[in-house]
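Chapter summary example.
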Amino acid sequence: MEKQTLNIKVVDDSLSEKEIYSIKISNQKLSENNSFLYELDKYQKAKKRKGLASCKNRSAVRGGGAKPYKQKGTGNARRGTNNTPLRRGGGVIFGPSPRDFEYKLDSNVIKYGYQELFNSISDNMIIINDSLLKSVKKTKEAKGILDKLNKDKNLKIVLIVEEEIIKTVKTWKNIDNITILNRRELEVNKVIHSQFVMIQAESIKKIEEAYFG
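The structure predicted for these 213 residues follows.
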């Protein structure tokens, strides 16, 4: 099977791009219209939906035990309860009820979806060493790194890190338009709509093991 190489720039502690991190992806498996990526994005959004919309049907409406009026002699249509959806204050016909929108997605679709994701953003993506990320203690230092990388602070930037250092890199949150994502809970939608992606060196290795093997 033919292989396509995904090349990502690596930034060292001196912020110079000296290395290229290469990942091999299966060329034949990726679709031309990113259909795997679409399915993965739809799957993640469905998992996040709360599904709390609810209303009462005729069995849940309070009251309605007694017949509102006698069967004959009133001139009205016969009625056995006030809970009927045809009357004001009655139940709702086919109304929403709490539900779970999550569904199962084939593991290969998830795998190829992430391959398409990183294939589409590789040109606007860099890998940052763990030591450099952990050394940033102030917002001023984080802004300095963006300046040296010649990146406008108005860009929508995503920083992907491991869960263990999320608290360590919290200073990046003070910069507008920067979103920090946990590698284990990588939201495709936020990555797709970003203009520049920075990823921890350890995170890209684990992503390669999980989705590019």
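To summarize the output: The chain has two domains: 3-38+105-211, 50-100.
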